[in-house]
């Protein structure tokens, strides 16, 4: 009897250990968001496709969720945001993404859609790396160039559970040569007022997002010329679900590089106002993926974009076609700053652009 119990216990431990090691499947009450990425061709003529997923549970009544929401409400009040604003629907919708229950060690399979008829069904199925403590997981899959002629690769999560909701993802397949735009988001294409912490919180959590003047039309002109877009921001990934419809309405599709953030780890104000090293790393990675592309770097004068782009130019001089900096009211617009920052960048490359100017004229 004792022997049988021990054997059963040991067997259970092995099963548990196997589940932990291999990851657990997606549950019916869990959600997946795939973030848009960009792929490049390697020397074997395969698309290297980065997949980035976020797995979480939107558990409305969890104790942790209630406590965190209370914390955020108190935080809002400390910034002179009224109780009425803190209880507004837009605030609740925006902060919801910061207080979901992230799911770690989740194993996902995806199926890639629209591959060549020469590929077997099994070739379209890929197993992703398990999610980390923050619910995020990253995997690179490989798709032969001959398998698809599409500009965007579409895929969806496979689930054992019947559901009316499909979790879809996209990756842009960017050829070896072309024109690419690397764009900041806050105060470049979306009004955020990063330099004013109260205005930043208001624009992030309490008000409808607003485009910066002329930028949607300018970006559409660039897209019509065949440009590919990479959006690099210091904002946390939790902003993406709220940002997605705004971007889809006003700006061309592209990849997103945002930052990992957990509310309990840091002040969100300090987080949103510190970005230089992160953005340098992400921008370098993009240029290294597309060494034969020409790049337009677009940012603003609010914080470090001029300094970041000047440093990038010095490292990738042959790839940088233009640097365009939106002049943000209230920021350091002293000509000495820009002359010093861009001292080693030809004057034909960089331009400070006011909202009243034509961006296309500034580009040309």
UniProtKB/TrEMBL annotation:
Keyword Signal belongs to the record: yes
Signal peptide: 1-23
GO MF term set: phosphatidate phosphatase activity
Pfam name, any one: APP1_cat
Keyword Signal: yes
Domain Phosphatidate phosphatase APP1 catalytic: 180-326
Keywords annotated in UniProt: Signal
PANTHER family found in the cross-reference section: FILAMENT ORGANIZATION PROTEIN APP1-LIKE, PUTATIVE (AFU_ORTHOLOGUE AFUA_1G06650)-RELATED, PHOSPHATIDATE PHOSPHATASE APP1
Protein name according to UniProt: Uncharacterized protein DUF2183
Species this protein is from: Cocleimonas flava
Taxonomic placement: Bacteria, Pseudomonadati, Pseudomonadota, Gammaproteobacteria, Thiotrichales
């Amino acid at each position: 009897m004792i022997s049988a119990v021990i054997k059963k216990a040991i067997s259970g431990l092995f099963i548990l250990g196997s589940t932990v090691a291999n990851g657990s499947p997606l549950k019916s009450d869990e959600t997946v968001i795939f973030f848009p990425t960009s792929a490049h061709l390697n020397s074997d003529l395969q698309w290297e496709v980065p997949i980035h997923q976020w797995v979480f549970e939107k558990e409305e009544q969890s104790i942790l969720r209630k406590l965190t929401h209370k914390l955020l409400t108190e935080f809002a009040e400390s910034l002179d945001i009224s109780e009425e604003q803190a209880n507004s629907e837009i605030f609740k919708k925006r902060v919801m993404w910061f207080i979901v229950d992230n799911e770690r060690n989740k194993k996902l399979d995806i199926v890639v859609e629209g591959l060549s008829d020469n590929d077997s069904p099994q070739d379209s199925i890929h197993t992703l790396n398990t999610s980390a403590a923050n619910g995020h997981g990253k995997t690179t899959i490989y798709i032969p160039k001959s398998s698809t002629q599409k500009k965007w690769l579409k895929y969806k999560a496979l689930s054992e559970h019947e559901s009316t909701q499909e979790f879809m993802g996209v990756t842009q397949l960017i050829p070896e040569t072309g024109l690419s735009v690397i764009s900041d988001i806050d105060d470049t294409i979306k009004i955020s007022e990063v330099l004013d912490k109260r205005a930043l919180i208001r624009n992030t959590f309490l008000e409808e997002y607003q485009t910066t003047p002329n930028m949607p039309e300018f970006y559409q002109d660039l897209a019509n010329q065949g440009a590919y877009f990479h959006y690099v921001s210091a904002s946390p990934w939790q902003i993406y679900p709220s940002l997605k419809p705004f971007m889809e309405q006003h700006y061309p599709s592209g990849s997103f590089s945002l930052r990992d953030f957990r509310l309990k780890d840091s002040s969100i104000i300090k987080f949103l106002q510190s970005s230089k090293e992160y953005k340098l790393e992400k921008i370098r990675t993009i240029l290294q993926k597309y060494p034969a592309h020409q790049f337009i770097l677009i940012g603003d004068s609010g914080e470090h974009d001029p300094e970041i782009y000047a440093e990038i130019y010095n490292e990738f001089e042959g790839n940088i076609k233009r640097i365009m900096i939106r002049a943000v009211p209230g920021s350091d617009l002293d000509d000495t700053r820009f002359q010093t920052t861009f001292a080693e960048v030809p004057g034909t490359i960089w331009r400070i652009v006011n909202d009243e100017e034509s961006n296309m004229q500034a580009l040309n």
